[in-house]
Design brief:
Length: 188
């Protein structure tokens, strides 16, 4: 019985943080979609949507260290950020995607394709044979500074030769996430 209460207490004490992070993930995804799908046309029958969304959360790797080294604010929070570098994660955005578009944000939803695997994206890209197809890849967010800041990598894959991306530094002000800076922007 003692074990049951210990497990119950552990579950109840962890749950608010898990729900909070899930809500933050949904809010970050909405900001990212709003920013990058802004100029996309609404998906309609017979119209090819050029920007697709990769379902998996890209893991954070040693590239984050390079981003930290170039930013004073990140350097002050380096210990907390480095603890979250884990290139072995196997998570996806499906849950957050479903929450974001569950009876809300319908105009944005009309622009965003469903989550795709890389293989599904390749089939679509190869079928149309156009170099204008893009796959948006969003990393697992790194939350730090007592949950008031986040670092997320957003990358766009077209082909082996044409890719781009950057890290977004976001700040939570009065409960709302905003993009503060674009860091380590790159293009090939």
């Amino acid at each position: 019985m003692k074990t049951f209460y210990l497990l119950l207490f552990t579950f109840l004490s962890c749950t608010p943080e898990a729900f909070s992070q899930e809500k933050d993930n949904v809010d970050l995804l909405k900001i990212i979609f709003t920013k990058y799908y802004k100029n996309e046309k609404v998906i309609a029958k017979g119209r090819l949507q050029l920007l697709s969304f990769y379902c998996k959360k890209a893991p954070n790797n040693e590239e984050v260290l390079e981003v930290i080294a170039k930013n004073d604010f990140l350097q002050k929070n380096a210990t907390e950020i480095k603890k979250q570098i884990d290139n072995t994660i196997d998570e996806n955005w499906s849950k957050e995607y479903d929450i974001l578009f569950d009876n809300q944000n319908q105009y944005l939803k009309s622009k965003v394709n469903s989550c795709l695997s890389f293989e599904e994206y390749k089939v679509i890209s190869d079928r149309f044979g156009e170099n204008n197809q893009r796959l948006m890849i969003v990393s697992k967010p790194i939350y730090f500074n007592k949950g008031t800041a986040a670092l997320v990598k957003v990358a766009f894959y077209r082909t082996i030769e044409h890719n781009s991306g950057s890290y977004l530094l976001l700040e939570k002000i009065n409960g709302m996430w905003t993009i503060k800076e674009y860091l380590n922007e790159w293009a090939t």
